[in-house]
Amino acid sequence: MISKNKTMRLKIFQKRLSELEIDAAVLILSRDIFYYTGTAQPCILVVTQNDYFLIVRRALDFVLNETWIDISKILNNGSFKEALLKLKELGINKGKLGLEMDVIPAELFLKMMRIFADFKPVNISEEIMMQRMKKDQEEIDLIRTACNIMKAGHQRVLEVLSEGMTELELAAEVEYAHRKAGHEGILSMRNFDFYISRGPLSSGENLFKVSGFSNTITGVGLSPAVPAGPSLRKIKSGDIIIVDIPTCYQGYHCDETRTYVLGKACAEVTDLFKALRDISDNVIASLKDGIKCSEIFDKAYFCACRLGVEEYFLGLTPRKGNFIGHGIGLDANEPPILFEKSNFDLRSNFVITIEIHLTHPEHGAVKLEDMILIKENGCEILSVTEREMFLV
Known about the structure:
By secondary structure, the chain is of the alpha+beta class. The chain has helices at 4-19, 30-37, 60-66, 80-89, 106-115, 125-133, 137-160, 167-180, 267-286, 293-306; strands at residues 24-27, 43-48, 52-56, 74-76, 95-99, 119-123, 201-203, 240-243, 247-249, 252-254, 258-261, 323-327, 334-339, 351-360, 364-375, 378-381, 389-391.
């Protein structure tokens, strides 16, 4: 049975088009089409203030089996030209045309503008992402399953981590455990030219090396071609190992980080993680509907100052991070981003991560990242893996 929440998604989008006085929107990104229709097959989704239609480019049989939209709204073997003709049939010959301008390649954009020559393009991506931030119960349940899959990778680390294995070998074990547990094997990111392995894994001296792709613990990768993720470095006794490899279930992600030590952790590392856990606990305790991202960031930083670890907060100068979490759903990184200066309010049924790391200039880094569901008067931790530093 198709839920009412799913069928309402297009109506909510149409209402927003009307409020913004946008005459029509043409969507082509598979994540957005999946969100509104239930299929990720190659399609063009055309939405007006009062109508919509899905133009299927290939695999109609798949689309008919997957989608929850009205079958009468589906057209086969179409293109942008058919989309324009359909708009004209509806009496829409010109006006504002909403496009996913953050992801459309320039060549394709120019092609579309030649076809939709009488329309003025406007970026509709922000509106789509704003709508996608608020998760319905089915989305939350899928994310819960992705969190359960995540624990299989954690258990595998405890089983196989040993001296002499490489970061790559450990990452492969984690990824294999995720896949056996139901992970779809992708890491979807709505970022132009963003290339990474299935997720960061870093150890020892590599914890101090932060790739330019993100001001967090990235790993160094196997080569300059993809300079993030696990490397061929052999793990040694006493090393700190940080594992941050997301999972995906039926399109929805879990992004979670845990810190491990092979052997015995020195007192400085133990104290560092204790401070990290205190900061994270204080932040999570403050989360609720209506809190601003800047308030959350400030609470984390002030707690770090109170504990005397502000110098290590989010890395070392000059490569300090500037956020402590992000939204998550059909992409592993979605709005909102919990930046220091963001006045964006969190709302009920947002799913976010709280990810904080501390980097000591001598002993390395520790990191903790959890999946959080925002509620009216608080929050719920969706992560099921214990929030500890693990000695193996």
